[in-house]
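User: I would dearly like some help making sense of a protein record. I have put the entry right below:
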Amino acid sequence: MHAINRWFSENVQALARDMRWSYLPPLMVYVAAGIQGLTGIVGTFFVKDYLGLSAEFLAALGFWAFVPWSLKMPIGHLVDLIWRFKAWLVVLGAALIAASLLIMAALIGNREWMASMWSLNAWYVLAALLSPVGYVLQDVVADAMTVEAVPHVDDSGRPTPPEQLKRMHTTMQTLGRVAIIGGTVLVALINLWVFKGSDALPAAEKLTLYRNVYLLALIIPVVSVAGLVSAALLHQRQVRQLVANGLSITEAAARLRPEMAETRPNWWILGGSLVFVALTLTLGMSDWAYSQEAIFLGSTAIILWLMKRLVSALDPRARQTLVGTAVVIFLFRATPSAGPGVSWWMIDELKFDGQFFSVLSLIGSTLTLFGMFAFRRFMAERPITYVVGFLTLAGFVLSLPTLGMSMGVHHWTASVTGGVVDARFIALVDTALESPLA
């Protein structure tokens, strides 16, 4: 018991003790990223039952929705170049997210009116592509805001010691992860309440419920923009404190400004990214059957070319570490997922409803948060090849229950256990085991 209390104090309570008001603005943007899953269950049921899109089409759409995330590095470089105006990227991201949510709400609540202007499927594709662009912009700026959130001077204007500064940066990054996962826990609780008894609702009332969830999700851009407002208010408060200690307003503002080297445009990064975007858009809008494969090969060539220029400036040991890490992460991330077809199969064959998906989500997000603390030391003390290998093997083992249920194993387990170990029981246990490793 003493060991548990000590672990809790060192891993959880320590974070609470190290929390500062200056961390709040980026954490609010991270929370907004965490609660983006509020529409996930609704989207699954609405698309399946009312849009008539195939799982294959949605998997292909997922490819295009991921493209903005592949541009995170050049967008990050752009943020460094326009540092003083980076807050406007959060506003732009919030506007894109809000537009996506409003389109989906209109598709559900004003179907005929939307169809009179454009095809319903085209509206859905537009909404599905606007949203990730908005989240990428906000995520990149949130990462940049963490630099400003860590105070490099105290209330008297004296520089923060390097060791304390390093510890605060580590705390800030950990709290950011907690904020994202905490947002998913909050979403799961809301969905559990929203979908209670929804399976028995008439079709018209279900549609109203779906629309209301998308309207409720407009809180996401509001939270992220509120993070900007809180950042401005906290900055003004810090300036007033320094002025009260004898500094002028100009000196106070200069003390609070992060010490950063002047960033010059890296035209290789910007140029390579423009080529990637041009290639993606050109092939994406074509009718060529192998456009996705061509984009993959073309983007891989561009990334390898950029990496070659990057690693050429490193010493041999650092070069080998970077290349090896990149290869391992690429292979791990390149593992294909089952796609939306599994969710549809669970709905049609296993009879999982929105409320049960909410239960799975709550278990998953809560245990993911626990796993983040429980496996921190495991992740930090072992090489990335070991960690990725372990996660790959664990992922394979934990995918077997779903594979088994697709072959009817749950019917056999239910028959020999008097209905206790049925499909829902297996899904609950599998989610509980898998989530800490997410």
Q: What stands out?
A: The chain is about 80% helix and 0% strand. The mean pLDDT is 80. The CA atoms of residues 371 and 437 lie 6 Å apart. The first helix runs from residue 2 to 18.
